[in-house]
Amino acid sequence: MKLFLKGARCGMAKCPIETGRPAPGMHGAMRRRKLSDYGAQLREKQRLRRQYGLQEGQFRVFFQRALRRRGVTGEQLLQSLEMRLDNIVFRLGLAPSRRAARQLVTHSHVLVNGHRATIPSMILLPGMVVAVKDRARSRDMATRGIETAESRPVPPWLTLDAKKLSAQVARVPTRDEIAPIVNEQLIVELYSK
């Protein structure tokens, strides 16, 4: 399954998933066995974890927080992952991938409510303003990102001002607005064992 970890590279015709190449290694072309229930749960968890670029410990902390919040645990997990600063920078189109967005944040090119933010895992709340620093280098990187991400629309829960290179988090996204194609119920089942 395409996870789009490398930005627009997976949209090209040379994408390994599109060409149908077998998995690498001596036994890559052999037929696969049917996945067990645990294997399916683990695969879903790993897929979501890699999409957001998290370590196992970080992901577990996010799950524990989602477990304590009211509502459906899987939906709460996805909402808290979407509200991370590096993900919001990616969703705004300021960076071509989540890794690039993470680097933009750690190299202090991003401001949150007018203050420098260098922690990619920072959870944003509705009403917070994300802006690009007023430096030529920062603005150049962000405008290049917006130009390359024109095919990717800005989600409705974010309001972007492309001229000022700033955006506001309007609200917490609903499950329908969250992009990962993942069965979050399997992840909840895996962690509740």
Termini separation: 26 Å
Estimated radius of gyration: 18 Å
Helix content: 40-55%
CATH fold topology of the largest domain: Structural Genomics Hypothetical 15.5 Kd Protein In mrcA-pckA Intergenic Region, Chain A
Model regions low in confidence, pLDDT < 50 over at least 5 residues: none
| CATH class call of the largest domain | Alpha Beta
Query: What's the number of helices?
Result: 8
Give the tags:
193 residues; alpha+beta; Ribosomal Protein S4 Delta 41, Chain A, domain 1; Structural Genomics Hypothetical 15.5 Kd Protein In mrcA-pckA Intergenic Region, Chain A; 2 domains; 8 helices; 9% strand; globular
In short:
The protein has 193 residues and is α+β, with helices and mostly antiparallel strands.
Write up this protein.
With 193 residues, the protein is an alpha+beta fold. It has two domains: 36-83 and 179-193, Ribosomal protein S4/S9, N-terminal domain (Ribosomal Protein S4 Delta 41, Chain A, domain 1); 84-171, RNA-binding S4 domain (Structural Genomics Hypothetical 15.5 Kd Protein In mrcA-pckA Intergenic Region, Chain A, Roll). The chain is 41% helix and 9% strand. It contains eight helices and five strands; from the N terminus they run ααααααβββαββα. It has helices at 16-19, 37-52, 56-68, 73-82, 85-91, 98-106, 136-148, 184-191, and strands at 110-112, 115-116, 129-132, 158-161, 166-169. It has a five-stranded antiparallel β-sheet. The longest helix is centred in the first third of the chain and has 16 residues, at 37-52. It starts with 15 loop residues before the first helix and ends with a helix. The mean pLDDT is 86.
